């Protein structure tokens, strides 16, 4: 008798899920913060260094610097600001959605140490002695001394007193300041006024030169003779002592320029020096294009996954689509509650997460189908399939989680975004794809409406065996069975040949390393028409720059990527942005990486792969045995090498996101391998004792055949997602997506033809000494040797 109440409960849950998602999804997506690569903005990593030898860079100095940066950024009205201390001497600044990046960059990086000097660049001290135009060697360190008095500089001004005003006579924009002590100001202006005025010079020697961040290479006379390179703010003539607290800074200011100077002065000088180690800036148009293209690519990939699940698994496929939709909603909800920043790699992780989340459904549904083919009732098959698949799903997800955690620890900011989304995806998928699917499908199964209806699960009646007659299910794919073990030497030979070819390619061609690993600069230009390498080269040379390489990409050849071996300075970046913004109406995206950061990224990449591998070895050893663990590592190194070799052959740019792709594949490859190993272990338990190689080979081949459908279905669903990102996603993740597609295919190949068969050869060679024997234990354990 059909229990209609359970069917009603199923549809009520469906309505609740649909209603909740439909009424809240728009608000959630609207509130999610977008990263720099999706809305434009810039990110800079600074190295903090002392101003002088006596200063110590401690936590207090770093926090004071962060506070000053926040005050400066607040003057720009930027809401999405992130300023974080990293390590012992670094500060990372991220500003999203800012329109004038050059202005913000200048505002943040300016030390804002105001100084008052003579035309000979001597500092002015507060004392009653006449000021000599000869430089005092003892004053080189800019420290006050008791003999000559205290230096008059920005510290003698009232904090927060800077204002943008207009000159009372000329009405030109000016900046006014207040000094703390009028008599001190009278003293220094008196000395400057006594310097005289040589008519043979084009400037007045009794000028008070006002500098911002005076450096050793700066010179008033040099700048005066070359106005285009002028570094000082202004140089007013002082003809008599001034007894006042008001200081007026004049110059060739615009209103905005005067206000910006006032803002910098009011924010205060930085208590340290800051050196740029790494920077990346993304134009708003680039961000908008990347967001739109990647969302479309992701939607297509997810739709293909849904269609495939419906086609292959029928009713369970419907349940999978419901739980996967809930999974996507929960991912976005958790991310929004965490106040996370969604980046381009983060969207890629979400799309890939759908393909990986469906793996839990596939493992369970394949188990249910096996049990139904064996002749069990729908309810018995459902219970047995769920019970036997849980440990496999847990093992597979934990290995992927290990890789994601390593990515988060060692990755840069964008890679951390990818890792964060991947970790959330794994955790949420366990909730939806395991428990959610079991709840929803369980309501239908336990209603008894599906009794004796295997067609709803994609099982033909002719495939169902009769348990009473002792009929057993023979694992087949496409109606055939394959003897993989028989051809193991051929598979080993193919892999060895491909590895040797890859090694030759790497030795001969190497990798086209991006600036992440080599240091330098990368400029990505978005044109409003198709461009050529020659066109862009001429445009760069017109403003005095010669790129090492230029690569054209985009759907209509509208994107050009120029590489420079040098690290572009702030002024050079401003020149390039100004030129191409005027030419094409959009700001280029510019990334710079110093040699220090490049070396660190290489080191961290090696650490990440090594630590992920060690973690996987330890976990698989605990859950299975050391031989399974070591062969799993051989398989994942096999997959990682194929990605590297293909990047060498294609000469596609190899950057830090490819390391993220490799580590993702490391987790996925072990995930796939563990499913096969888990089935081998299960069949060993059923056999209890294996004495000969032929017996072991039969078990391995049977296990491969039983998990083949799962392996193929999983790789297809994940490849759907990755391939759509490759074909239709943003240019910035094209190479990343290519690495994923290659790795996914290599991972499936190694799981089927390398890992299990290598374990067979290795483990089978020991059978003569001692057979494999499984003994029942209270705790879960692997085959006992």
From TrEMBL:
Domain annotation Protein translocase subunit SecDF P1: ranges: 63-121
Stretch list, region Disordered: 128-154
GO CC annotation terms, alphabetical: plasma membrane
Feature: compositional bias, Acidic residues: 134-148
Coiled-coil ranges (or none): none
Subcellular location: Cell membrane
The keyword Metal-binding is annotated on this UniProt entry: no
Membrane topology, record value: Multi-pass membrane protein
Transmembrane feature ranges: 294-311, 318-335, 347-368, 389-410, 422-445, 491-515, 605-622, 627-650, 656-677, 712-733, 739-762
Family per similarity comment: Belongs to the SecD/SecF family. SecF subfamily. In the C-terminal section; belongs to the SecD/SecF family. SecF subfamily.
Protein name as it appears in the record: Multifunctional fusion protein
Origin species: Pontibacillus chungwhensis BH030062
